[in-house]
Design brief:
single chain; alpha+beta; eight-stranded antiparallel β-sheet; five-stranded antiparallel β-sheet; 19 strands; globular; binds flavin-adenine dinucleotide
């Protein structure tokens, strides 16, 4: 491999010490093992260590110390920037560590760091319990939780990271550490929103809540002609809706031949997606206004299994397509912001693309701004700008469209971004400092304590504080 020479004995020793496979270029499993969700990413690691447990992770971290190889850490492989893999380095891949065990008495779940939200929902729903995850079920628990976690239960039960009881991780020194409110509390603060900067998480312990098995849901689509009016009505609706209701709106073509008549399938539309985390009858009533903003083009709202709702968007985000997403926390949903959302959705180069507005507030604001590192707690809405496309020839057009849209929409934001929708980590330092503001110094000091050499650099990176 270019620039990397590793003695065979070193690799054999790593292989002998790990229960999981250590995969190299040329192995039949190599190409599958280096592929991530975003088809734009084409990285060629020197080694991929498929860890089976904490011992493998410690050994692999020690190997990085011995060899100075660049390091990438893989949970569910869904980071848009492709930070789960790297060129010429070691990937510590946790994707086979997927065990989830539920304590129904305590209402907690212990989740290994390679699990997806489908793994978590499957086990927790066996007991009628859930913790807030993400809106696509094959997204990894690890990256999503460490960045904050914004899912269908957020207004009632908060961010995913708000539901953490404790986190087990391996530090850059290869030490096994537990972080919770009682133990290593500062580290626990940083892990809730500060990303993968401080170590390799091996498992999370989450609080669970009674949810389902059936929940009232809303999924209704209107024509783009009514988009501005719908968004204004939506703004009024979320101001008064109960915390049980969590919603998201998307403007895009969403060309679904099963949902739409032939004459509108290729037209721009606006959709509202949401669920109610309580009694389904009360939920149907609470969600009803969302279905009355205009004459729907399609309305598939209704009470359904919580696990089905958690998977309702899965097919829209297939592995290997091309993706480029960015975000901004919005100060509000003003009439001018609404006009610009419609404008940018109209200008999107791909029909699979959407401009999304995620409702925040509710239980997210029950946690104090200083209580966790997560930076967007103050914001009433998150803007997600998602370019999704199939033709590689359209890469440049799509990336440019997202960047232009974000540059324009900054007028409605303090410039802070949701780190789990990070583009390709352009302007990392500026974005991190703007996003975290005064908390950046605390993150940077924590980084200096746990990872002074910035071994965990391939992420939305916090630079270790120096003495200067
Ligand atoms: P990976 O690509 O495996 O990892 C990303 C980064 O996380 C790594 O580079 C590393 O820095 C860190 N990391 C991963 N595992 C560990 C570990 N064990 N220890 C330490 N650091 C680790 N976000 C939301 O909040 N809500 C959503 O509803 C949502 N929906 C999404 C839907 C799709 C289809 C996609 C692609 C993304 C979605 N996201 C959502 C964004 C998601 O939170 C991020 O992409 C996140 O990084 C995915 O985590 P992962 O473990 O799959 O990522």
């Amino acid at each position: 491999m270019a620039g990397v020479s590793l003695a065979d004995e070193r690799i054999e020793s790593l292989r002998a010490d790990c229960s999981g496979a250590v995969i190299e270029p040329g192995d039949p499993a190599y190409d599958d093992a280096r592929a991530v969700w975003n088809g734009m990413i084409d990285k060629r690691p020197r080694l991929i260590a498929r860890c089976q447990g904490v011992a493998d992770v410690i050994r692999a971290v020690d190997f990085v110390g011995e060899t100075d190889l660049p390091l990438a850490v893989r949970g569910g492989g869904h980071n848009v920037a492709g930070t789960a893999v790297c060129d010429d380095g070691l990937v510590i891949d946790l994707s086979e560590m997927t065990a989830v065990s539920v304590d129904p008495e305590e209402q907690t779940a212990r989740v290994q760091a390679g699990a997806t939200w489908a793994d978590v929902d499957h086990e927790t729903q066996a007991f009628g319990l859930a913790t807030p995850g993400g809106v696509v079920s094959d997204t990894g628990v690890a990256g999503l939780t460490l960045g904050g976690g914004i899912g269908h239960l957020r207004c009632k039960y908060g961010l995913t990271c708000d539901n953490l009881r404790s986190v087990d991780l391996v530090t850059a020194e290869g030490e096994f550490v537990t972080a919770s409110a009682e133990e290593n509390a500062d580290l626990f603060w940083g892990l809730r929103g500060g990303g993968g900067n401080f170590g390799i998480v091996t498992s999370f312990e989450f609080d669970l809540h009674p949810v389902g098995p059936a929940v009232a849901t809303c999924f209704v689509l209107y024509s783009a002609e009514s988009a501005e009016s719908c968004l204004r009505q939506y703004r009024e609706y979320v101001a008064d809706s109960p915390d049980e209701v969590t919603t998201l709106t998307s403007v895009g073509v969403m060309p679904d031949e099963e949902l739409f008549d032939e004459d509108v399938v290729d037209d721009l539309k606006i959709g509202f997606l949401g669920c109610h985390a309580g009694d389904p009858d009360a939920g149907e009533r609470a969600l009803a206004p969302l279905r009355e903003f205009a004459e729907p083009l399609a309305d598939v709202s209704g009470t359904m299994a919580y696990t089905d709702f958690q998977q309702i968007l899965d097919e829209d985000y297939p592995d290997g397509m091309h993706y480029y997403w960015k975000s901004l926390f919005l100060d509000g949903l003003t009439d001018s912001a609404i006009d610009r959302i419609r404008y940018w959705a109209d200008a999107a180069p791909s029909p699979l693309t959407t401009v999304d507005v995620w409702e925040l507030g509710g239980a997210i604001t029950d946690v104090g701004l200083e209580e966790s590192a997560f930076a967007g707690r103050h914001a009433p809405f998150l803007l997600g700008v998602e370019a999704n496309w199939e033709d590689p020839e359209m890469d440049e057009d799509n990336v440019e469209w997202v960047q232009d849209c974000i540059a324009d929409m900054r007028q409605f934001s303090d410039g802070s971004v949701y780190l789990n929708f990070p583009g390709f980590l352009e302007d990392n330092d500026e974005v991190m400092e703007t996003t975290f503001g005064s908390a950046y110094a605390r993150l940077s000091a924590l980084k200096a304590e746990y990872d002074p050499e910035n071994v965990f650099e391939l992420n939305q990176n916090v630079k270790p504080a120096t003495d200067e």
